[in-house]
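REQUEST FORM: STRUCTURE PREDICTION
Request ID: SP-0412
Submitted by: Lab K.M.
Chain count: 1
Length (residues): 99
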Amino acid sequence: MSPDARPAAVPTVQVDNGRFRVTEWRFAPGAETGQHVHGMDYVVVPMTTGRLRLEEPEGVREVELTAGVSYARQVGVSHNVINPNPFEFTFVEIEVMPA
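STATUS: Completed
RESULT:
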């Protein structure tokens, strides 16, 4: 393992019924999702207040999230999500499957 390697965020699928996929994501300090492209529209519900670092094609940015304050994004988002906090960060992701 290289010194730059990050631990993986841990996804737990709670619902996957053909219409919605609900996944809880747990990020240990420094954990990441890995680079990925979203194939569906989705809503994120933060369960923790803190920051997330987003590595996107346009560059790197950090966003401040508040527990319980949701946001939505459309299909096609490309990024790696990283927890820069010194504590675990958790959110629930709700993906909307195409009709």
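NOTES: The beta strands are 10-16, 20-27, 36-37, 41-46, 50-56, 59-65, 71-73, 78-82, 89-96.
Reviewed by: T.R.
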